[in-house]
What we know:
With 272 residues, the protein is of the alpha+beta class. Helix content is 40%, strand content 19%.
Amino acid sequence: MADLRLVGVTxxxxxxxxxxxxxxxxxxxxxxxxxxxxxxxxxxxTQTQLDLESRLSPREIQARxxxxxxxxxxxxxxxxxxxxVERFAGxxxxxxxxxxxxxxxxxxxxxxxxxxMLLGELVGQRLEQRGVPRDGMHWDAxxxxxxxxxxxxxxxxxxxxxxxxxxYDPARRTMTAxxxxxxxxxxxxxxxxxxxxxxxxxVDDAAKNAEPEPPEEAVAETEPIxxxxxxxxxxxxxxxxxxxxxxxxxxxxxxxxxxxxxEILFGSRxxx
Length: 272
């Protein structure tokens, strides 16, 4: 089959002029079927039609997908079908998946043998020990307004949907916990509220200062110590001590137990 190249149309417009590789020419009649094919919109015309119908440009659609919106949400905002949004969302969704995968590869610490542990490995081990399967962990990422990336891990624990979020810096390859669950997954226990404590001496001094003065009657009934001799003074002191009952021992209150983060998340203590 010879290759033909369109070189023009006849003067009356009834035929197309095609040229063969050897320089010869062929003519093709312009019938109604050919005219209908020529009237079909081109890809550029289709794109122009989309721009006119959508309230968002393709660049704006991709920016919203990159910031974390779903194709369904963008389709509603743009006023077009989800299928049309997905034509522009595909590359951006792959970008988000790539960023999430790279964030999970950030080195966080070394294990007991000195080997470097990655965030994804550490998190996976901690959750697997508590019954969360690997296929139940879903990583996602989206661009923040400040240019950084928010990385989130969604998982099901103790029958509840949970998530942990970090801030990822691709240039420095650093991950910063953005909530308590992210800190817990990196074995950084949330900081508990600390109640200021007073010294025992300060408490005793305050108690002494708060004690009321004894009534005058009680002072009057106390036998005075006279200067009649040392033995008489000792006897008076001994009699006064015998009249004062010993104070009952004070029961020390049991310190309240603060639940660990494992108990908060899973309802039980961390297994030994």
